[in-house]
Amino acid sequence: MTQWGYREVSTNPIRKRSHRLLPFLRWWGFVGLDTLRGDLAAGLTGAVIVLPQGVAFAMIAGLPPEYGLYTAIVPPIVAALFGSSLHLISGPTTAISIVVFATLSPFAEPGSAEFIQLALSLTFLAGLFQLAFGLAHLGVLVNFVSHSVVVGFTAGAAILIASSQVKHVFGLHLPTGISFIGAWKDILAEIHHMNPYVVLVAVITLACSASLKALRPRWPGLLFALLIGSLASLILGGESHGVQLMGRLPAHLPPLSLPVVSFDTLRELAPKALAVALLGLIEALSIARSLATYSRQQIDGNQEFIGQGLSNIVGSFFSSYAGSGSFTRSGISYHAGAMTPLSAVFAAVFLALILLLIAPLTAYLPIPAMAGVILLVAYNLIDYHHIRSIVRTSKEETAVLLTAFLATLLLDLEFAIYAGVLLSLILYLSRTSHPRIVNLAPDPNSDRVLLTRSELECPNFKILRIDGSLFFGAVSHVAEFLYGVDKNSVHKSHVLIVASGINSIDVAGAEMLVHEAQRRRKLRGELYLCGLKQQAREVLQRGGYIDILREDHIFDSETEAILAILPRLDRADCDSCVHPLFKDCKNVCSI
Amino acid sequence: MERGSNHATESSMSIVTISRGSYSRGKEVAEKLCQALKYDCLSREIVLEASMHFNIPEVRLVRAIHDAPSILDRFTYGKEKYVAFFRAAFLKRVQKDNVVYHGLAGHFYLQGIPHVLKVRIIANLEDRIREETKREGISAEEARRILVKDDGERRKWGIHLYGADTWDPMLYDLVVHIDNMGADDAVAIILQTLQRPCFVTTHHSQSRLDDLTLSAQVDAALVNEFPKVTSTARNGEVFVSVRASLLEEQSVTERVKRIAGSMEGVKMIHVNVVPFIIED
């Protein structure tokens, strides 16, 4: 019987090829009645949630409201089937909507036919860029975004999402799209105008969703909570007391469209489409990775790029404007029980059905009820467990987490993402350029020559282990350390580097070793190496460096090295040594 | 047969499974082998035991362990449930040792148990058609159609549930082709094989069978609630994998422990929630 794991490897080449072309086949085998149940519940909840969001985002983008809903039907299906993340829900998003508006409004009147046409062309071009990036395997860059950045970004985004809903919870009429601090200033200034009916509806919905999640985790709690919130609003006569309802939606499926890509539009829109493409990819991948911290899924960046690209290309033929991954909807979907990308497909199908069949009923859905549900989702998005462990583990990582968190709150979302990526790269470069250098000494409890980490040192002989690659970026740090050895003790001219932790050496690293060996000889000492990996040894051999380092100074094992080096040491001071480290130190002293 | 009997008296405890196609004389071989070894002969009895123990209709159980799964089965998990019940009953019965089992699926369930001799009896299709025509009084054409369909169903069943083809010789220790040899010759060959030390029950092999049996009992107890459950056991420590969202990890773990924790032989349970499987 096949033992379950997260990833199963097929050896069938036809199957492998088909999995690459049609990535949904990779998880299709996992689909069953239980996953369908979870995906249906999540899909239904997601469809209800995207209704008001789609309308709002389309308006932000300068497009008629129905275009936001069209964008929430076709692109999410394509992105889910061809992407990598099992839980990412794509479609219209705030950040992309803002960029679309800012990009196209100089060229055409927002809402006009010309504007819509340009939006479709921009979407098509952005999709082409994204697809090209995916096919060029640039998705690997996402691996450089550190876990702390993702956790910080997620926590910041959760607070942003929650903050954006506070006005709906209190029934305040405040402008949208302002900064985090500005939003809270406005909220605090207007809090005395809060509407108790609105608050009651929001609190009832929030309490129901939290209780259902705790007591009946397998139920579609968010959806039930929305229904209860809607009923509460009806019973309280919410509409007459200022409870804002979502309103009727147009009953249409996305009509076919044709993005026009002439030479002129290409020249004008290509640079802007590139920006939209990059923002969309970074947003989608950050969210996918963020969700993956909960689901423990490995994200394939290239596949995600391809999925996002295809979704925008196909979407542009179905009246959809540029979309990306949505943090709110992905979080809601995951917490509502989504197990496979079919949840995104179901959400799109349900949205289409809602539009066609029960569009008038959506008029009764209260905005504060949706805000209550989103508050709970935002709370659940904050990964307290990982935040605690990061804070306990490393100050450096904590600083990165805090920076990503604050940047998300205080800067534009896209800049926060860029800052996160930059921070991750800086962190990575800093780590790789500072390989760990450990002082070693013989284990006094071992009969053999076994070197372990120790504070003790032989006055004549320094043994150290380098953990990391010796490449151009790390050369300065290692060379500085080796110089430091002599500063502390002029007699310590013999140095053995245990190289078992060095995975690779480049020309700069090899040159540094050679210079160090030559320098040590001038100090009446030697540089020795042991435990070199094959790849590192080959570099030294090919470049002729071994001749300078001397073949008899390079040993296979620590024991061999110690036994060969000890007789070569200057033993003049051994008599006065207070820490004889080696077993034959006494013999050496008595000679 | 005389020789076989002598060997039988010398042999230690062991288990023999005989996989066979319809009308390939496997049943006859199994029955003669039981007589020679003085072992229990099991086939349909397991179905009856499972049917009574888990309170399910016999006909459904027979279909579940014979017919190839339909597309609907994939989503309803009916087959997985019945198969789990059958497997639990089967392993519980053979755990007692000194058993010859002939029929469906036994060779799948006892893979990796050293003291089990897994035998496949095959016969020429024309011989099988002749046998069926004689016994059932149907035309040769009809007999051929039924046999080909039956073989196909069994192969599909194995591939769907265990990813292995019943016709794959790698599943067996011994494949006996009933052509010019008779049932007695086949029995003699099996008895001869059974004398090899590798098929003698040892403490280690019995312990592995006990572990397998325990995991099958746990699977059967959980399968109604978690249709895709798989478990392994080692000296009473049971490792259960069930699929669910990680959001439900705690409640799922509690449910699994509640259902299976108090079962006989279970000393400790570890629950692994599998939220997805991606095939590369």
Walk me through this protein's architecture.
The complex is a heterodimer of chains A (591) and B (280). Chain A is mainly α and 591 residues long. Chain A contains 25 helices and nine strands. Chain A has a six-stranded mixed β-sheet with strand order 5-4-6-7-8-9. Chain A has a two-stranded antiparallel ribbon with strand order 2-3. Chain A is elongated and about 100 Å long. Mean pLDDT of chain A is 86; it is low at 1-5. Chain B has two domains: 2-199, Rossmann fold (3-Layer(aba) Sandwich), CATH 3.40.50.300; 225-274, Alpha-Beta Plaits, CATH 3.30.70. Chain B is built from twelve helices and nine strands. Chain B has a five-stranded parallel β-sheet with strand order 2-3-1-4-5. In chain B, strands 6-7-8 form a three-stranded mixed β-sheet. In chain B, strand 6 (230-234) and strand 7 form a beta hairpin. At the A-B interface, strand 1, helix 1, helix 2 and helix 3 of A face helix 5 and strand 9 of B.
What attributes characterize this protein structure?
heterodimer, A: 591 residues, mainly alpha, Transcription Regulator spoIIAA, 2 domains, elongated, disordered N terminus, B: 280 residues, alpha/beta, Rossmann fold, Alpha-Beta Plaits, five-stranded parallel sheet, three-stranded mixed sheet, 9 strands, 17% strand, globular
Radius of gyration of chain A: 31 Å
Any low-confidence stretches of chain B, pLDDT <50, length ≥5? 1-11
Total discrete domains of chain B: 2
Total helical segments of chain B: 12
Output the CATH homologous superfamily of the largest domain in chain B.
P-loop containing nucleotide triphosphate hydrolases
How far apart lie the N and C ends of chain A?
A: 68 Å
- The total beta strand count of chain A reads 9
Give, in spatial order, the strands making up the sheet with the most strands of chain B: 2-3-1-4-5
What overall form of chain A do the CA principal axes indicate?
Answer: elongated
On the 0-100 scale, what is the average pLDDT of chain B?
A: 85
Q: Tell me what the CATH architecture of the largest domain in chain B is.
A: 3-Layer(aba) Sandwich
- List low-confidence stretches of chain A: 1-5
H/E order of the elements of chain B?
HEHEHHHHEHEHHEHHEEHEE
Strand count, sense and barrel status of the largest sheet of chain B are:
5 strands, parallel
Q: List the chains of the largest interface with their residue counts.
A: A-B, 38 and 27 residues
Q: Tell me what portion of residues of chain B adopts beta-strand conformation.
A: 15-25%
Helix/sheet category of chain B: alpha/beta
What is the helix fraction of residues of chain B, given as a range? 40-55%
